[in-house]
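In this supplementary section we document a worked example of the pipeline. Step one takes a protein sequence of length 628 as its only input; no multiple sequence alignment statistics are reported here. Step two produces a three-dimensional model, which step three serialises into structure tokens for compact storage. The input and output of this example are shown verbatim.
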Amino acid sequence: MRYTMAAKRSAHEAQVPDVLPNLTQQSRLAATGGAPATTQVVKKTVEKIFEAATTVVKQGATQAKNLVSEKVVIQLADVLVIGGGLSGLTVAEAILEKSKTLRVFVLEASDRVGGRIKTDTLHVGTSNLAIDGGASWINKKQHENIVKMCERFGVELCEQYGNKMNEGRHVVVRGQPDTRRTYHGEIPAYSLLTLWEIQYRVLRKIEILSKKVPIEEPWNFPEAKSLDKESVASYFEKKLRTAAARSALDATVMHLFGCHSSQVSLLHFLHLVRCAGETGELKTLLGTDESSCFGTRLVGGAQQICEKLAETIRTYEDAHVETNARVVQIRARNLQGDHPIVVTTADNKKYLARTVVIAGCPSTFVNQCSFVPRMPLPIERFGAVSFRGTLSRAIVVYPGPFWRGAGFSGFARNIDPSPQQCVSAVYDYCGMQMPTEGSRVRENSALVCLISGDVAVEVGNWPDEKRKESVLASLALMFPKASELSATPLAYYDYFPHREDPFGRGGPMTVSPPGQYAEFSAFRHLRKPLAHSRDTDNKPLIYFASAETSALFPGTMEGAIACGKEIALEVNTYLASVGRRRAGGGENESEQFFQEEEAGGMFVLRDDVWVATNNPTQGKKSRGGNSH
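The serialised model returned by step three reads:
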């Protein structure tokens, strides 16, 4: 239902009446200090001035209200999804699949769907190369949801070259040419002492410790608080003696979180490992074989999955996907009405919703959006103490894969990058050619270069040519015998989301610093719906859906889909339990919008609800629990 309130004139166009109307010349002089006047004349003059001023104020208020109303468009929604990334689109489609007649809106702040999944097209000669600026890889063996979605939409998968033993040697370097080593398989070319320390003093103990962490409640076991207080870096310092081992493992954490290991809670790190699929092993997250999260890519780019989901959603009669719709406020209103939530966008559109799903980047959204009433204190604290890491990338295109010809896989790591040689990891990026008129043209070859942490922040502020020089210097360090070839690419592309994307801001997940994950993490507080403290029906008004709140591969495309399906099931269950009520009609509800008072009270986590009594400032605690 669309409802528009229009005004004939705006306040600044109004004719303001003379504040001294119809006064005698003597009265005007008296009022303005021009001539003497009697007390009676002055009294009458003041009364008329007051009456005229009152009229002006009333007219100004009415016209100001009309000015606001003139630009307000009100839409009614059963479900309003904020965020057009993979999790938000999955929520919307899964809800519609079960309840086709629901009125569902997806609001995306940017000019495209996909969120942190972003694919650009790089034109090289007569061919087009799909360039992923965000999520690129999947684990074909364990990421069942994204694999099924690729099959459904006809998206071809490409095995990551270099994952097999016969596909060339890998490279590891520690900042300087004389530290460069090559190797086959999974075991890097470190010294025996370094390898022993990494494997037996850290990795094996990390996996043993991670098995103690409950997947659903990582804060709820005896060692949780002590592990949370410790950083990953301090744990490495205690366990490792060699600088090479510490640098190698610091680089591993940087690869996952986009920040230094000193900034990450050990409990957060352990929980991430615990959620890594069936085995819960670190190698699943960072390995260089087909069973790792870097095992397979989507030909044509990952964003096409989001675009196809959006197309599917738009085929439903009462479903909408809107871009350039940045939400600036979420407000509770008539709690006993059918649409107790008001969502306002930056262009002053209003959406009255039965329930809202926030599927944007949680730490960014909590800080950028206004909530009336306020969010629960733990969620506000989460927004204040957490941050996003920085992961950026560059793609360098060549006429042919010179590294393969030299016997290399294309996989290389610099475990001690610097701004002058900024790349921390490189992967072969061949196989991403986009079809042209139904057939493939001759492929160009490419390398994808990952840039992370503080180095990415610094380099991201440099001029384009200077950034390119740093990337090419990194490739020369990793492949010195082919430095002339690596220095002359056909094309170059880079993407620094922390600088270019105000909504995603970089890494795949929000980072919890030491001491914050157990009490103030997204996983603890954003997996529950929010109710309102004065709503005796305890309705779930706001849900959160994000890849990083998934209990399965958080921060990945698989996690986004898994979480989206889970939240869709909860929303459908709730809406089915209350029925589809439209008491009074949507248009009447829209007309009443400007006459309603604020709901007051507060948003609360739904399993810890304060039920209102006669005194709205007091209440008794009730274990509401989830509705499913």
